[in-house]
Amino acid sequence: MDREQFLEVYRHSLAHILAKAVMEIFGRENVQIAIGPQIADGMYYDFLLPRGISTEDFPAIEQKMKEIMKRREAWTRKEVSKAEALEIFRGQKYKEELINDLPEGETITVYYTGDDFVDLCRGPHIENSAELLSVAYKIRAVSSAYWRGDEKRDSLQRVYVYAFPDQQQLKAHLAMIKEAQERDHKKIGKELDLFMFDETAPGMPYWLPRGWKLYQTLLAYSRKLQARHGYTEISAPLINKKKLWVISGHWAHYQNNMFMVPGLEGFLAADAEIPGVLDNPMDGLDETATVKLPKGAPVFNRDLDDTMGAKPMNCPNAMMTYRRTLHSYKELPIRYSEYDVLHRKEKSGQMNGLFRVQEFRQDDDHTFVMESQIESEIADIISIADEIYSTFGVTYRAELSTRPEDFMGDIEVWNRAEAALKKILDDKYGEGGYEINEGDGAFYGPKIDLQIKDALGREWQCGTIQLDFQLPHNFGLTYVNAEGNQEMPVVIHRAIYGSLERFIGIIIENFKGAFPFWLNPYQVAVVPIRPEHNDYARKVAERLEDEGIRVEVDYADVNMNTKIKNFKTMKDPYIVVVGDREAAENTVAITVRGQKQQLHNVPLETLVKMCNKMNDEHTLELIGEVPEKF
Q1: C-beta separation of 342 from 311 below 8 A
Q2: Mean pLDDT for all residues in the chain
Q3: How far is CA 616 from CA 224, 486, 619, in A?
Q4: pTM summary value
Q5: Angle CA(403)–CA(404)–CA(409) in degrees, nearest 5?
Q6: Which residues are CB-neighbours of 166 under 8 A, at least 6 positions away?
Q7: Is the residue at 210 inside a domain?
Q8: Which of 309, 330, 356 lies at the terminal end of a domain, its last residue?
Q9: How many Å apart are CA 440 and CA 385, to the nearest integer?
Q10: Which of 158, 173, 401, 529 could join 145 in a cystine, given CB atoms 3.0 to 4.6 angstroms apart?
C-alpha cells in the first residue's frame, strides 16, 4: 500500500472512530450521523447534535477516540440489501436518505466497528481499531455545514480532524498551518488597510487607498512589460445583450455563473405560468421549474431577448473589436490587452477573501494569429510569464488541460489545437516536463495553465494560455491571406497574473505583507523629529514624489518613536528621519525594514538614486548597492 492509499484508508477509518466516539459521549439516541470522508490533511464528520460542540469538548472526544482504539475492536464488512440497510439505520434520517437515493440492485456495504457501531460505507478500511494507535491526530475545528451543501436543508456540525502517520508529520503540518494563519491575506489586508468587504456587495472587494496603490502598481508593471512585446490595450462595455453571449457560447455554457440585468421587458407579470429558464434570486425558485407566479412577485426571465449580462469574461468584446474592420495577414498578430472589471456569480460558501470573488480584473489578452504564428506567439507569452514570475520570486509548473465533455466545435479542430499546445510544451519543458489534466479545458479550446508555488510550497493556478479555433468561427472573423483569400484567424486567450484580486491575495501571503520596495503601497515614510523640521520633511517628500516614488509623511506633533512605530506597523520599506543636521546638510537618516542598523548622513539625491534603481529593476532586495561614501 503506497502512502496515499495508506492515508486514505487510515483517515477514513479514523472518521468512523470519531463518529463512534461522539455517539458514545452524547448518547446514541441523541446523535444523527451524516457523512465522514477523508480530506487532504485528515478527515471530518457531520453530525446533528443536541447542543453545540466547543473547543472545550475536543480533549474528551480525542480521549474517547483513543479509548475505542485500545479496545482492539474488529472491523467487519458486510453486503446488505436496500431493505436490510434501511432496517440497520432505522432512525438515522441522513443515512436513510442516502440509502433511498441508491438505485435498485445496487450493492450496499456497511462496516461494523465492534458490535455496536455501524456505518454506511464502500470502504476499504482497516481490520482492527488498534491499527490506528500509531496514527497522530488532533481535532482542528468545528463548523456549520448544510446537509448536502443545500442551505435550505439542516445545518449540521462538522468536526474536522488532522490525521498523519506519526507525530513528527503532524507537528510539521501544524507548524505550517500556524505559518499560513500568520500569512492569511484577509488578516494582513486588514492590518495594512489594503481592502475590505461589506455585506452590501458580497464577494466584491473595496480597494482602500493603500491597496489601490498596490493594485495600480501591478497594472503599471504589466502594461509596461506588455508594451515591450507589442500589446495594445482596449476597454469595452461591462454589460452586453443576451445576443452577444449566445454567439460566444457563454449563454449555453456559462449563464448560471453570470449576473443578469433585465431589459425593458425583463420582469414578467404576476399570475403568469412561465415554462423554461427562470431566475428569481429573491424567492429562490428552481431555475428549470415551470411555475405560476404569485401576485406581487414578478420574476425575471433570462430567456427574453432584451436580457443583458454583466460580462464574466472579456473574450466576446475582443471578438467584436477585431470584427469592426477588415484585416490583412500583415497585421497579425493583433494583441488586445484588457483590464476591465468582470463579474462571476459564486455560491456564498465558495467565496474566500480575495481568492474567490464575484468582481475582479484580469491581465487579459486576446491575440489574433495565423496558425503558422501559434508556436512563436505562445513562446513569447511564456517568456513574459517567466519574467513576471521571476520578478516575484516564485516558480511555476505547466499543465495542459484537454477537451471537456461540453466542448464546442469540431473534434478534429480540437485534436489539432491540443497537438499544437503539446508540441510547444514538449519543446519548452521536454516530454514529461509538464502534467496533462484530461477534460479540464475551456468549452471553446484546450489550455495551458501555469501553477505557481508560494513560500509555503502551496500551488496556485494563475496564468493561462488558451488556444481557440471556435470563437473566431462563431463571430465570423477573417483576415486576408497572402493569396488575397479570406481565412479565419486563431485566437489565443492569455493571462499571467490571472485574477489580480487572487494574485494580490497570493503575494500578500507569499511576502507576509512585507512587499518588495517597487511594489509596496508607500515606499518611503518621512518622520520629522519635531514640528520645526516639517518644512524640510516636505522638501524631501516633494523631491521623491517628483521621481514617482510613493511617499507618506507624518507631520503630527507627537513623539518621533510613535511615528516610527506606526510606519513600521504598515511595513514601509524605508523610514526616513530628518532633524536639524539633516535639514542643514540636505541629508536623511534611513531605517530599512527588517534591518537594525540605520544609514546616517545619506545625501537626499543618493536616496533618490537608490529608490529609482529599485523601481527600475523591480528587485526583491530592499537596499541594493549603497555607495560606501555618501
Answers
A1: yes
A2: 89
A3: 11, 45, 8
A4: 0.82
A5: 65
A6: 134, 135, 136
A7: no
A8: 309
A9: 21
A10: 158
- Is there a single domain that holds both residue 43 and residue 89? yes
Spatial strand order in the sheet of 587-592: 551-553, 524-528, 574-578, 587-592, 598-603
Which residues are marked as active site?
315, 344, 362, 364, 366, 447, 493
Query: In whole angstroms, what is the distance from residue 563 CA to residue 565 CA?
Result: 5
For residue range 515-559, what is the model confidence (pLDDT) as tens digits?
Answer: 999 999 999 999 999 999 999 999 999 999 999 999 999 999 999
For the segment 184-194, what is each residue's pLDDT rounded down to a tens digit? 999 999 999 99
pLDDT surpassing 90 at residue 409: no
Cα distance between the two ends of the chain = 65
C-alpha 255/C-alpha 243 separation (Å) is 12
Cβ neighbour number for residue 53 with a 10 Å cutoff:
20
The residue with greater pLDDT, 253 or 311, is 311
**Bridge partner residues of 367 (DSSP):** 335, 492
Q: Number of folded domains in the chain? A: 4
Which domain, by its residues, includes 29? 3-182
Q: Is residue 518 part of a domain?
A: no
Which of helix, strand or coil describes residue 312? coil
- Stretch (H or E) spanning 448: strand 447-453
Sheet holding 239-241, edge to edge: 239-241, 308-310, 260-261
